[in-house]
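Q: Structure tokens for this one, please.
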Amino acid sequence: MAFDNPILFFICSIGVFNGFLASFYFLFFSNQKRVQNFFFGLLLSMLSLRIGKSVYILFTERIERDLLISQIGLSACFLIGISLFYYLKSSVENRKTIPQTWKIHYLILAIVVILIGIILPYRTNVDFWHQYFIHFIYGVWGIYILLSAFILRDIFQKLLQKNEKCTTSELWLVAVFIGNVLIFSAYIIGYFYLYLIGTITFSVVFYGLLIFLLFKNNRENVFQDIPEKYAAKKIEDDKAKSLTVALHQIMLKEQFHKNTNVKLKDIADALDISSHKLSQLLNDNLGKSFALFINEYRIEEAKQLLLENKQYTLEAIGFEAGFSSKSTFYATFKKINGQTPSEFKKQFS
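A: Here is the predicted structure, written as tokens:
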């Protein structure tokens, strides 16, 4: 039996339609090409495919249904949990690029559900999908929801503390998580009792999140990086050593110090860590500010140029090494090396 109530159809389908529009925006048209936006777009697209399948089943007569659509919807459901998990993880960790392990992890799950769909298609193996595979799909979704809750543990702790206030971006992540829990719960209930509840819940959750975004302050702050606390995220010695080696290698490779306008974020992005973590490494583990760190590389560069390019003027060497002015070059060289560039050069004349 299929529903034919137009109002009910509108309520169930409006969330799916707008969910697809929002997913296309975050995947392809967002001005901010962030890792987080990509995973949020994937999450919305997988949810929309799953809910769209439900709407199709509810409002299409059994004899007219194309079972391939059911298979696509259930296959998308298999990837909802991992999309949520990596969206929250990339947001909490302020990821700037997608690690290779994440790509492999996601690809493995996608290949599993695609192969099962090819070997045991829904059209000819309805009993297998209904009696076995659908339980596996929901089990995987549930596991990733639990892992997602673990990712947000620090934010949940902040919510319970009166002396610490969550940022808008943190509240947004909690709202997205709760929305997914509600949709998951609705489908578990619908599996045993009322199938319609899942589609309605999605529409309610979608527009609830949309209302959250409509407030100007929220709209400006939702997609900002999550702040990190040094005390809560101390870098262990082994990790600090490996990061220091990687930092040195990236400095030699990219020659960031030669850029007079280089920023901490530029180097952090190249290392695939947050700006906060790089600042922590420099301050807490290496005992120097970012400015001193960069200037040390510039002075080493200048010393090499002074020894190898005797035809260059001192001012030209300063600019070549990354300093923005002659006076800054002289003052920094004297401060770090204990002598002026001229005095250093005379030693080797």
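A few notes: Residues 28 and 38 are 8 Å apart (CA to CA). The chain has a mean pLDDT of 82.
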